[in-house]
Write a structure and sequence with these properties.
Elements: H1 8-14, E1 19-24, H2 26-30, H3 47-56, H4 59-64, H5 66-81, H6 87-98, E2 101-106, H7 112-116, E3 121-123, E4 126-133, E5 139-141, H8 157-163, E6 175-179, H9 188-199, E7 205-209, H10 216-227, E8 231-235, E9 248-250, H11 254-264
Parallel strand pairs: 1-2, 1-7, 2-3, 7-8, 8-9
Antiparallel strand pairs: 4-5, 4-6
Helix pairs in contact: 5-8, 6-11
Length: about 270
């Protein structure tokens, strides 16, 4: 990890950085043992199985067969429960500490950025540990065994997963996770933050990490930053939609490249 060498031109450019935006996808969590969604070995890699998973994780299925949706969700949440932040996550925390202004936009719902200590997070797809009742609107959460924190009323994720059924509110309604399912719109409040912090006033440096960059709200911040003359970096072993227009495409793992970037950034705070 400590032997990863950044290009000299990038090292020079990083000296002038004061504000930073980081965009993360499933690739950064893969190094913690959580399967990616797309790409080789991803959840959707097998076309038939992928189609079934997408259908299970859709808004219509949640309404018609919530137990099926939750069985798929427990697979994702179960992998998250057994995962811990890796060197990429902790390097992002260090980058946030050094920057005068920082924002982290993540597609991940596994809570690893929160667990690592990142603070200004736009979790655009939500958090799989947060719950809301579809009948009465009561909010709840799964107790996160990774932190040992409990609310006294939180649910035990292992017990719910073992039951294989949708968790239920005391009112009798079904809890849904506070995540964006297929067929649902992105939350307006988080989109407003995305525009304000990444598009209206692009940071000096915008880094894309471990995302296939298939969605406009991931590509657009990189495009806007590049067009505004800001420094753009992609960290991904595989080429994506944005590889050809970013200033630097580092074909590396997040756990290798991000600590090197964090070390090279000046301490502005």
């Amino acid at each position: 990890m400590g032997d990863f060498a950044l290009p000299e031109a990038l090292l020079v450019a990083l000296r002038d950085v004061r504000s930073v935006g980081v965009i993360t996808g499933a690739g950064i969590s893969a190094e913690s043992g959580i399967p990616t969604y797309r790409g080789k070995g991803g959840i959707y890699d097998d076309p038939d199985e992928g189609d079934r998973t997408v259908e299970a994780l859709s808004a219509p299925t949640l309404q018609s067969d919530p137990d099926r949706t939750w069985r798929a969700l427990f697979q994702i949440a179960g992998a998250a429960v057994n995962a811990r932040p890796n060197a990429g996550h902790t390097a992002i925390v260090e980058i946030e500490r050094k920057a005068e202004r920082f924002v982290l936009l993540t597609q991940n719902v596994d809570g690893l950025h929160r667990l690592a200590g990142s603070r200004n997070i736009i979790d655009i797809h939500g958090d799989a540990f947060e719950l809301i009742c579809m009948s009465c609107g009561k909010q709840n959460q799964f107790n996160d065994p990774r932190t040992g924190a409990t609310t006294g009323q939180g649910l035990d994720i292992h017990r719910c997963a073992a039951a294989g059924r949708a968790p239920r509110c005391p009112c009798g309604g079904v809890y849904r996770p506070e995540v964006v399912l297929f067929g649902e719109m992105l939350p307006e409040d988080k989109l407003r933050r995305l525009y304000a912090e990444l598009l209206d006033n692009p940071p000096d440096l915008v880094i894309s990490v471990g995302t296939s960059a298939m969605f406009p709200y991931i590509v657009q911040p990189m495009l806007v930053a590049r067009m505004a003359g800001k420094l753009t970096i992609e960290i991904n072993p595989e080429p994506t939609e944005i590889s050809d227009f970013v200033a630097f495409h580092l074909k590396a793992k997040a756990g290798d490249a991000l600590p090197a970037i964090a070390a090279a950034l000046p301490n502005r705070v």
